[in-house]
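Action item from last week, closing it out:
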Amino acid sequence: MRDTEVAAVAVHYSQDHGSENGIYLCASTPLGIPAKFGQRHVQNRTIKKGDTLALLVEDSGPGSMYTELGRSCVLGKVPQQMKDELEFVKASRKLTLDMLKPGTPQGHLGGVQRFHAQERPARRGAAYCHGQGYDLVERPLIRNDEPWTIQRT
């Protein structure tokens, strides 16, 4: 099976359940090599035993509201480094949810980015996370220079 075929299963499932459109990215690599997402024309790799596989689905459901789901897996034994990365992701998620409360200035959420920079200095990005709604990426953008305050809608 190729990466594009995995993405096609996600497209088919999503459309059968009311999705109108979206982004379906799949990338497999040999263990230890980072997966790089790309559009369908670069999803031609044949998945092999022992590979890592990452799938990202960002699509609009019934009513045109977007959501996102990403999953990674290993087609074999999971190395300790990946187990450690999962613990890092879980710690990041907890920190984010603890800070993502109504009334919190978004600049304050830069603490999550500082945590990332301290723990994983080679990983940097413009936005830590973002809202979704009728558009794939909506405010709030969780980054140091975002002036909005977190609020309920």
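Closing note: The longest helix spans residues 80-99.
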